[in-house]
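quick one, 121 residues, struct below
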Amino acid sequence: MVLVGSTEEDVGFNGSTTSEGKDYLFKMACNLIPQLINAKIIDHWSGLRPGCSKNSPLIGKSPESDNLYFAAGHFRQGLQTSPATALLIKSILMQEDLGIDNQYFMKPNEQIQASKPLFQS
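---
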């Protein structure tokens, strides 16, 4: 089995796939590995990349709760930036000074809006 990906389209919260995207990925895979030309595609899916405005992640303490911290919205850099995010969250929790302006990663209170709860007890 070979996993091939990915494409990126700015279409909002539309999680559908396109035949153009599938064809493009298959062509690129076959260019890299010509033996795939007769391969059967068994699945094709899409996912949404979580991002925040101003292309910076949301990292820090919630202004509305004493025990809620955010580390979200890294868009497509989540895997690459996870060590730095962990270090930043640790420094916030331990009240350590890393010499980094945390306000760059925290949005003003009015931009952090509570949504309806996903679950209720």
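The helical segments are 19-32, 78-93.
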